[in-house]
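Supplementary Data S3. Sequence and structure tokens for construct A.
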Amino acid sequence: MSIRRISSGGEFEAKIGYCRAVIAGGFVHVAGTVGQGDSVTDQCRSALQIIGAALQEAGCSFADAVRVTYMLPDRREFEPCWPILAETFGAAPPAATMIECGLIDPKYRIEIEVTAVLPGDT
């Protein structure tokens, strides 16, 4: 099985030793991704842009997502993100889980992890 790694050049990739996404076994595994901005919705949109770029580089899109995990320090901030997520994943939403937990830096309010299937491998 061939493995391909995608880097986005994020500051934590080199510090921690990971890459933005790994393509293996017909799947694209996108690492937990945080975004920039002051509000949880700003950070949600920003994280989704980073994830979308990784999916595009891998040869797929949000329409190919089969699993998503949302991690938030405060679960009450999840609901404002729902319209953004519904718009992003459209009519073919993936299986999803939301976890309330601490993130790597207190400035981050949401982290999103996605797994997608490569087109033609379904």
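Construct B, processed identically:
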Amino acid sequence: MTDLDLAHAAMDAAPDDDVARLRFYERLADTELFMLLGEEAAGDQVTPELFEIEDQRFALIFDREARLAQFVGRAAPYAGVPGRDLVKMLTGQGVGLALNLEVAPSAMLIPAEAVDWLMQTLSHGPEAAEARLTEISPPAGLPEAVVTGLDRKLAIAAGRARFAYLAAATYDNGAQGHILAFVDAAPGAEDALASAAGEALTFSGIEAGVMDVLFVRASDPMAAHLAKVGLRFDLPEPVTPQAPTAPGTDPNTPPKLR
């Protein structure tokens, strides 16, 4: 079973569990999805093959190329797109997602309203803070769901930083919370890392929580202090990408809807 199969099974087994539902949609956003196209892609422009089901339009998507091939049963054009990019592409278009139809236990119809909701959820970016740190101490009181959520998010952030530390923080205005400090972040990766931290909070189901994001160099004195008191997360080494096999499989140039 794939990660999406497992997340779908957990959601299906507990239909009233908001956290299980959030985790399914998190996995959907983080998964490389393969969308059936109506025609061959023209450069970075793609045209999804749309189907009407129960008076709604759906794009056919699969979490494995083999599953797409099994459903179609013939050679067909498709695009590989990260789930978050696919949602961004289709939001506001009145198009839902038909996931793994007839080929997997995670088969389901995701209506257009859910696509728009997921895009809004993913769009909640970090905000700049003005308060100054006065104390950094070992993390305490964070729900386990946040820690495991961070672990999942950072596991797919290969090459964007060497590692990160989670610690409790006190500010000069008396506020308390937590910080996630990334060590030796790659140039230009700061926004993506901050968004990943924010999503870990959002999809953990925690209604209220504060976690600021910092970026430090390994040579900074703060990094040495964080190494003593913080919970460390190691980010994977980057993997050399293989040549794309279909339009959209290059994560640096996601396809555009046409």
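Helices lie at 3-13, 18-30, 65-72, 83-90, 112-122, 144-155, 190-202, 221-229. The longest strand covers residues 163-171.
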